[in-house]
Sequence to fold (229 residues):
Amino acid sequence: MSSELLRAEGLCKSFPTGEGSIDVLRGIDLVIREGERLAVLGRSGVGKSTLLHLLGSLDRPTAGRVIFRDSVDVSTLAAAALARFRNASLGFVFQFHHLLPEFDAVENVMMPGLIGGLGFSEMRPRAVRLLQEVGLEHRLTHTVGKLSGGERQRVAVARALVLEPALLLADEPTGNLDPKTGEQVLELMLEMNRAHGTALVIATHSPELAGRLNRRVVIAEGTLEEALP
Ligand SMILES: Nc1ncnc2c1ncn2[C@@H]1O[C@H](COP(=O)(O)OP(=O)(O)OP(=O)(O)O)[C@@H](O)[C@H]1O
Ligand SMILES: [Mg+2]
Fold:
């Protein structure tokens, strides 16, 4: 069995609201192995996006911790080290893409590399190739603010994969796409998994997409269960 990539231990997340706090996640234990392809399922509002944010250390758990490669407790990293770790090891595709609207598609996809100290001449061809793979070769120099929702989603997927991360966390990455484009985006993620061993954790409502991955977990009432294969 391949080695451990990310381990969540006793993850809890509560949100304060006007009428007291709501306990969305109530003790989640999860081990993700190198190269695994995991679907996170569950009804709307059960906490799938919340879990992905915690796994990617974009938000802090109320209790519990996240361990990377059996050694790094990401909750103990200071802000700068955490940002470096996320940039080098993780890729994110979230419902709000956090792209830079005034930069064009190629620039957005190059950005993680430029931030990580790689050169323009190395990053640009990589960015162009990934944008071609998601069917955006005709939109390379559009500023992102002028792209459609599905086009932005594809830019976000290309950006998330450009540094060949150890782990891709994707929240409904094909949710806004027509079936053919969705298939193209899924195929790119699967190819990254096959070629570079990128582990995939994908939150989705699509049984079809989940069926293309090799493991499925379901969140209900704050806890997580393995779905039968
Ligand atoms: N910052 C927040 N403050 C208060 N409540 C929140 C916050 N973020 C999420 N929630 C609540 O936590 C619950 C889980 O939200 P989350 O976005 O993780 O659900 P989800 O499973 O991803 O749903 P969907 O399938 O609709 O995307 C929801 O009931 C939501 O209203
Ligand atoms: Mg969600």
Observations:
- Residues 179-196 form the longest helix (18 residues).
- The CA atoms of residues 87 and 198 lie 14 Å apart.
